[in-house]
Specification:
Layout lengths: L1 E5 L7 H5 L4 H5 L4 E5 L13 E3 L7 E3 L1 H15 L7 E10 L2 H8 L3 E5 L8 H7 L2 E4 L9 H12 L43 H4 L3 H19 L1 H9 L5 H8 L6 H11 L1
Parallel strand pairs: 1-2, 1-6, 5-6, 5-7
Antiparallel strand pairs: 3-4
This protein binds S-adenosyl-L-homocysteine.
Length: about 260
């Protein structure tokens, strides 16, 4: 897959592409990344990429024309029969989640537009942007961090990228975990500051360990994200054993959590 990133600050991506386990995905070309700086497509001696906002107010707005030229160059470079979607990172977009990351991770990629300043001339968004994605209900100073979040999440889902094949399937939100939250993790030493490790994990008994992890996932999801538990229940992912475990939880019993969740649905 190929991502073409329109950004005024391509240099901020460098550490992401060369560090950690996901670096394999970029180096092998499984996730191809190309950068396009609107400044290289701007006109005049000053290569202007922004200007004051019509109607007044503080802050600058990214000009539509250099972005259009960037996009034209990208379309030519990609040589596609089906044009890849143009994604604009914006606080008004759909919040990024596991479901959409999974879709992107099996797609042909996209053109990712990172805004800066007050944002981008709305006419460019209206004409060329297919989808807006937000990282959450807060404001960043640029779309680059959001683009990196998407790239990183997509890269770790590529086959063979994580050391342990399939280990991402045991991560929170993954359908292999029925969309539940991950269970807690422990490592050496066995006693740290007087705290021991849950004995189930030390038992060496695979079925007991798997059951303990499942129950911790259920407990955490019931406590923290009851709506995820309810979706798992509605799609028939909770066994009778799961339900009886949830019933005996002191707080956030299965009934209480389904009550909260159904209000949200
Ligand atoms: N005036 C805008 C914020 C501009 S911040 C508003 O109030 O909605 C500058 C740029 O940072 C945006 O154009 C966008 O590309 C990026 N950005 C800011 N917050 C973001 C978020 N929560 N998710 C994704 N991108 C964001």
């Amino acid at each position: 897959m190929r991502f073409d990133i329109i950004t005024l600050f391509p240099e901020v991506f460098a550490p992401l592409l060369t560090s950690g386990i996901t670096r394999r995905a970029y180096e092998s070309g499984l996730v191809e990344v190309h950068f396009w700086n609107p400044r290289d497509h701007a006109e005049g001696n000053y290569r202007r990429v922004d200007d004051r906002s019509f109607g007044g107010g503080p802050g600058m707005v990214m000009l539509a024309e250099p972005l259009f030229r960037c996009l034209t160059a990208i379309r030519a470079a990609r040589q596609e029969t089906h044009p890849a979607p143009v994604v604009f990172f914006s606080p008004i977009g759909q919040t990024l989640n596991h479901g959409s990351v999974e879709q992107w991770s099996s797609s042909a990629g996209a053109v990712l537009l990172c805004g800066r300043y007050e944002g981008v001339d709305q006419r460019f968004i209206d004409e060329y942007v297919d989808q807006q994605i937000s990282l959450g209900d807060f404001v960043l100073s640029g779309g680059e961090i959001a683009a990196m979040a998407l790239l990183d999440a997509v890269a770790r889902l590529q086959p063979g990228v994580l050391g342990d094949e399939g280990s991402h399937q045991l991560d929170s939100f993954n359908p292999a975990l029925d969309g539940l939250l991950d269970s807690p993790h422990y490592t050496r030493p066995e006693v740290w500051q007087g705290h021991t490790v849950p004995p189930e994990l030390m038992s060496g008994h695979h079925a007991h360990i798997a059951r303990w992890r499942r129950e911790q996932s259920l407990r955490l999801t019931a406590q923290r994200r009851p709506e995820l538990l309810e979706s798992a229940r509605l799609s028939g992912k909770l066994s009778r054993q799961d339900e009886s475990f949830l019933k005996q939880l002191p707080h956030g019993s299965s009934e209480a959590s389904s009550g909260t969740a159904s209000k949200k649905l």
